Amino acid sequence: MKIRFSEINTVSNYISFLRLLLGIPIFILLDYIKIDYSYRIILVSLYFAAYISDLLDGYLARKFNQISEFGKIIDPLADKICVGIIILKMYLISEIPAYYFWIIILRDIFIFIGGIIISKRIGKVLPSNLLGKLTVTSIGIFIIIVTLETDKNLWYYNLALYLSLILSFASVAGYAIRAFDIIKWKKNETI
Questions:
Q1: Which of 68, 81, 119, 122 could be joined to 7 by an S-S link, Cβ 3.0–4.6 Å?
Q2: What is the C-alpha separation between 96 and 102, in angstroms, rounded?
Q3: CA dist., res. 180 & res. 63, Å (int)
Q4: Which pTM was predicted?
Q5: Residue ranges of domains in the chain
Q6: Quick check: 8 and 69 in contact, CB under 8 A?
Q7: Exposed (0-12), middle (13-18) or buried (19+): which is 68, by Cβ within 10 Å?
Q8: 1.10.10.10, 3.40.50.300, 1.20.120.1760, 3.30.450.20: which CATH number matches 5-190?
Q9: What is the DSSP string of 23-77?
């Protein structure tokens, strides 16, 4: 799979790259959330900026017919790195339980490594699917709830926590089944 500069040099890919860079101020500002509540509001604003950029890059790629193999890599990678940075820092500052950190991080590692293996086998990058997008959205909602210092005994805190965990397991299973089907299909196609 070759990637040409023209595939990289698109507005949608630059937006994805900017989302990647948003992880830096988010990582730094998370250190201050126990000092002043205003940092929590700033962080939620940055989360929404990242979310809007995720919607915008996909919309622009489709609108200007700039969907590329590089875009299929940088967009979910930016999501995974942003979420990973937030989850890591929240774990380090004891805002989330250790099991949550490990489940989310291992999910992303499995999907990332699996994506590389599949790409090498079939020669192209698989786009994200609906289950993956729903999982990231549920993780994002949980991150917002935690950032806003919600009481851990409230029903919506626990709903967001367990829903994002269930979807994380489901998305890994879904990606594994999808990968198996695609490899099987590709193998039968060459016979």
A1: 68
A2: 11
A3: 31
A4: 0.86
A5: 5-190
A6: no
A7: buried
A8: 1.20.120.1760
A9: HHHHHHHGGGTTT-HHHHHHHHHHHHHHHHHHHHHHHHHHHTT---HHHHHHHHH
Task: Look at the block and give the residue holding tokens 């929590």.
Answer: 40
Helices (H) and strands (E) in the chain, counts: 7, 0
Each residue of 101-131: pLDDT tens digit? 999 999 999 998 988 888 888 877 777 788 9
165 Cα distance to chain centroid: 14
Pair of tokens at residue 34: 């126990």
DSSP tag of 129: -
Return all residues near 3 (Cβ < 8 A) that are at least 6 apart: 68, 69, 70
Q: With 80 as the cut, is the pLDDT of residue 2 above it?
A: no
